[in-house]
Amino acid sequence: MMSSWKYAAAAASLALMAGPAIAQDWPSRPVTLVVPYPAGGNTDTLARLVAAPLSDALGQPVIVENMPGAAGTIGSVHASQAEADGYTILFGTSSTMAGVRDLHGETPPYAPDDFSGVTMLALVPLVLTVSNSFEVSNIQELLDYARNHPGELNYGSDGVGGLTHLAGEVFQERAGIEMQHIPYQGTAPMMTDILSGAIDLAFAGALAPIQYMNDGQLKIVAVGTSERISALPDVPTLQEAGVEGYDVGSWFGIVAPAGTDAAILDRLSTEIAAIIAQPEVSERIAGFGFEPMTTTPAELDARIRDDFQVWDTALREAGLL
Fold first, then answer.
1. Where a domain ends, among 223, 239, 257?
2. C-alpha angle with apex 33: 29 to 36, nearest 5 degrees?
3. Whole-angstrom Cα distance, residue 180 to residue 162?
4. How many domains is the chain partitioned into structurally?
5. Which N-terminal residues, if any, form the signal peptide (predicted)?
6. Strand extents, DSSP E, 135-248
7. Which listed residue, of 29, 114, 232, 298, carries a Cα 20 to 30 Å from 182's Cα?
């Protein structure tokens, strides 16, 4: 008779052999891409923009399943509990991955560790906008003024605990300045007040501010990403201005349940990167005001961990956790 430890060893050996075989046969049936937001929005459009050519590349349908609700939580929880077999993947965002504590506090229904990264799809850069009534012309002048007049400036956000609030809190902490926070109920009223001069500055997604800047209605003095963006090649990053380590922006990407075979993650990442590189796809993405960007699975894992730490620290310093 075979002893129990021999049974265990044999089972482990079979499992190790099964992994590569499963990955080699994958996909043998349709793959579900869970989008935790309603159909018709930019996130859904981006997901479908990738899903159709990905179906062709994999030789199996990639079915987009919209599971909206609770700011992306319902679909994210569903995907986190799916089998790690490569047949369920999730359209993830910086908010649903790194910002999960912002959404749910200390006891979220899932954690970033419940997922393995596949690839980023696009970066949504934040820009630092300044009212025309605030007489500075560049980021260095703004920093000098803020450091010499602590607490005098104010900045708007689209809501307490949101990304633009986070961006402002991290900016204060890393630039060594102090500003008053003025939260709004959404981006539109915030932009209205910066255009009118009711607030001094604000972080916002790049698309609308660029249009206002081109019309001479406001100034953009810096971008929040670690590298300059194609739409504003002459506008420096905050890191270039000496705000060490500043890299705050929203992103979209694909993740899979934790434990998904590395060969499947690599295959998905490679195929999606080729799709994003196609001019007709990258141009559509740029038209949304996004920066097309892909990563390896390991790079996305690292980005999620880093962003989670940044969000967590900023939320605690702001007294929101």
1. 223
2. 150
3. 16
4. 2
5. 1-23
6. 154-157, 180-183, 201-205, 218-223
7. 232
3-state helix, strand, coil in the chain (%, to 5): 45, 20, 35
Query: Which pLDDT tens digit goes with each residue over 213-268?
Result: 999 999 999 999 999 998 899 999 999 999 998 988 889 999 999 999 999 999 99
Q: What is the pTM of this model?
A: 0.81
Q: Are residues 104 and 144 in the same domain?
A: no
Q: How confident is the model at residue 7 (pLDDT cuts 50, 70, 90)?
A: very low
- In this prediction, residue 276 carries a pLDDT of 98
Domain assignment present for residue 10? The answer is no
Residue in this structure with the two tokens 């019309």, named with its chain if needed:
215
**Pseudo-torsion of CA 211, 217, 221, 226, nearest 10°?**
-20
> Quick check: helix, strand or coil at residue 50?
helix
**Residues spanned by the domain of 285:** 31-124+249-317
- Amino acid identity at 214: N
Q: Left (φ > 0), alpha (ψ -120 to 50) or beta: where does 252 sit?
A: beta
